[in-house]
Design brief:
Helix content is 37%, strand content 20%. With 685 residues, the protein is of the alpha+beta class. It folds into 5 domains: 60 residues, Helix Hairpins (Orthogonal Bundle); 248 residues, D-amino Acid Aminotransferase, Chain A, domain 1 (2-Layer Sandwich), CATH 3.30.470.30; 109 residues, OB fold (Dihydrolipoamide Acetyltransferase, E2P) (Beta Barrel), CATH 2.40.50; 78 residues, Orthogonal Bundle (DNA polymerase, domain 1), CATH 1.10.150; 67 residues, Rossmann fold (3-Layer(aba) Sandwich).
Length: 685
């Protein structure tokens, strides 16, 4: 077979494979066996290997052909991918319609009701019918380019199916719209949006496989889909066997109804949910919602409600967008999932205004796909309303908000050992007096600096000079404090992936990354540990001096005040601060918690103090090590580091682009070392 014959054969094979893909994924039909289809794909692969110049990006062989990426590129959406407002009751739905009628008083609304899939929203761009780009929602305006990963999903066509004119007329398109469609199909752009999901069966199969292989299990279908899409290696995404359903055409084709978008998406090669339906009024939407809620366990994927959209597209711009989402769409959620568990304890968290919020410590339980061990109780009035006691069996609900909450107590299950819950009289952070605010439900710490001090201590602990834990920024720390997962820095080392998954900003991958970052810093240098404690007056330099002098945390804890005061650069005020810190029972409890939670201090290797009594000044840039590394090495060998040159300076180490310190050293006759000489002095070469 020559090249021209091979080209014709390849095109026929691609068309035949695309035909059977459409039958299987869109129409749920099968004309040939899986083995026969695999045989066609194998022949196509061999032909393309014979003539690699004939490989095109729309070929079925290219679904898993991409190399692993270093990172994802950013994509600006042609139109924002908006959030949806939520409704939780029939009255919410009536209220929504009434709000629209205030804008369009004489308008009667019809709707298109869609099952709300719990997956990952995607935007797909086709140029002249060929798939060229796929992007995540991101922040709604800018997403990430995940084209290579989306190519691994069989339900996403690499080349759009060209429908006949007769098929287009069947779904109600007139000649003008058909003309506009074919122009976009042949020479323009068609943008499709939909949901990438993982079915429940695939999740089960993968977790059984991963369990056998000793790998971490996938938490739930949504996080699994999100984590799969954001894999840098498309082969891993392909292994996850994701599915895709289209629900919107963004390109302006002149369509008049949202229902037509679904029907046209099906004609060009996409799966749509056959269960979706046109509803002539809000009552039919509610009936559809109630029916699907009763039967949600019969669908092969997780769904958490129904999306109701005004069907008349001409009304969308008139209704407009308010806040985070459009007025013409409402997500009517299913009733929250509920489970029972036990209340083990109540912890009190201090917020930014000093308000104390009770947090329930629960017997761990899975709800909504994640394991929950803590939940907010809001305030003391809510505790009293529930009649809650420590030791109670409670009902935990995961509502529209992802944060679970305690909704009911089961008092008949009490055994008589339950304990009443009382608001603390002293602040759990600073021991200041706690008072109830007159006329409010809140209890508040009287120390206005309490929250700020605790927040600063948390941020200081994870900072670069201390533990240097990547990903634990102020917003994340505040979120962890608010929900009660973190009270002291020791609690960072108790966090699990399941603790993070119910929180905003966390999907499976981001939760795994943060836990990995914490685990990577479970063994730290003594100097960084001391600095991280945030002892008053103790900076990085003093922390290094303490570590080098005492060599262990135990020796610092046992040091007498007089011994501390005798150290170089440690005066009586600093010595008293260090001594008081290590003799405070609350601080000793923190050190014990850190140890019990798996934090270890690296042993200091005692080296000869060959630089004892010598003072160094560093100027300019060094090539072989950073300035901080050079300082640490000098101190490790007994030397001191100064920031200014004087007659008491023994050496000035001059790197590239040395500044005025070099001139001053020359004028004072101080010995100047090149980087090579300095390395020789500290036995680096």
């Amino acid at each position: 077979m020559d090249k021209e014959q091979a080209k014709k054969r390849i095109e026929k094979l691609k068309a035949e494979i695309a035909h059977h893909r459409y039958l299987y994924h869109v129409l749920d039909k099968q004309e040939i066996s899986d083995a026969a289809l695999d045989s066609l794909k194998n022949e196509l692969f061999k032909q393309e290997m014979e003539y690699p110049e004939l490989i095109t990006q729309d070929s079925p062989t290219q679904r898993i052909g991409g190399k692993p990426l270093a990172k994802f590129k950013k994509v600006t959406h042609s139109q924002p991918m908006l959030s949806l407002y939520d409704a939780f009751s029939k009255q919410d739905m009536y209220d929504w319609e009434n709000r629209m009628k205030k804008i369009l008083p004489s308008q009667e609304f019809s709707y298109y009701a869609e099952l709300k899939m719990d997956g990952l929203a995607m935007s797909l761009r086709y140029e002249a019918g060929i798939f060229v780009q796929g992007a995540t929602r991101g922040d709604g305006k800018v997403g990430e380019d995940v084209t290579q990963n989306l190519k691994t999903i069989d339900a996403i066509p690499l080349v759009l199916r060209r429908p006949s004119e007769r098929e287009l007329k069947v779904i109600g398109l007139d000649d003008e719209i058909i003309k506009k469609f074919f122009y976009a199909f042949d020479r323009g752009v068609i943008e499709v949006r939909g949901e990438a999901i993982m079915t429940l069966n695939v999740l089960k199969e993968l977790n059984e496989k991963y369990a056998r292989e000793g790998k971490a299990l996938l938490a739930n279908p949504r996080n699994a889909a999100a984590g799969s899409i954001r894999q840098l290696d498309p082969k891993i995404t392909a292994e996850r066997k994701l599915d895709f359903y289209a629900y919107s055409l963004i390109t302006d084709l002149g369509l008049t109804e949202h229902e037509q978008e679904h029907e046209l998406a099906k004609l060009i090669g996409f799966k749509i949910l056959a269960i979706n339906k046109f509803c002539k009024n809000i009552e039919e939407v509610i009936e559809f919602h109630d029916f699907e809620e009763r039967n949600k366990d019969k669908v092969p994927f997780e769904c958490d409600g129904v999306v109701a959209m005004v069907n008349d597209l001409a009304l969308w711009p008139k209704l407009g967008i308010v806040g985070k989402g459009p007025r013409y769409v409402m997500a009517y959620k299913f009733a929250a999932e509920q489970v029972t568990t036990k209340l083990l304890d109540v912890l009190w968290q201090v917020g930014r205004t000093g308000t104390l919020t009770p947090t329930a410590v629960l017997e761990p339980v899975r709800v909504g796909g994640v394991t929950v061990s803590q939940s907010t109780l809001h305030n003391m009035d809510e505790i009293n309303r529930l009649g809650l006691k420590i030791g109670d069996t409670i009902i935990l609900e995961r509502a529209g908000d992802v944060i679970p909450k305690v909704v009911q107590v089961l008092p008949k299950l009490r055994i008589g050992k339950e304990k009443n819950i009382e608001a603390p009289k002293q602040c759990p952070i600073c021991n200041s007096e706690v008072v109830r605010v007159p006329g409010e439900v809140a209890f508040r710490c009287t120390n206005k600096e309490c929250y700020a001090v605790n927040m600063r201590s948390m941020s200081h602990w994870v900072s670069k000079g201390a533990m240097d834990i990547d990903g634990l920024g102020p917003k994340i720390i505040e979120q962890l404090m608010k929900i009660g997962l973190v009270r002291t820095v020791a609690d960072f080392y108790k966090l699990t992936i399941d603790d993070l998954l119910p929180l905003e900003r966390f999907a499976q991958k981001s939760a795994e990354n943060l836990i990995a970052a914490i685990d990577a810093k479970r063994e730290v240098e003594l100097s960084k540990f001391i600095y991280g404690l945030g002892i008053r007056h103790v900076g990085e330099e003093t922390a290094i001096d303490l570590a080098n002098h005492f060599s262990s945390l135990g020796k610092i804890k046992d040091a007498k005040l007089e011994e501390l005061a005798q150290l170089a650069d440690v005066g009586p005020i600093m010595a008293k601060s260090i001594y008081d810190w290590f003799n405070n029972p609350k601080h000793l409890e923190l050190l014990n918690e850190l140890k019990n939670n798996g934090l270890k201090i690296k042993k200091i290797e005692q080296k000869a103090k060959i630089l004892a009594g010598k003072t160094f000044v560093l100027t300019g840039a060094l090539e072989s090590l950073t300035r901080d590394e050079a300082k640490a090495k000098i101190r490790e060998l007994g030397g001191d580091v100064s920031s200014s040159v004087s007659k008491n300076t023994d050496y000035v180490v001059a790197g590239e682009e040395a500044g005025s310190k070099l001139d001053k050293a020359t004028a004072l006759g101080v010995r100047i070392l090149s980087e090579e000489e300095f390395l020789g002095l500290i036995n680096k070469i």
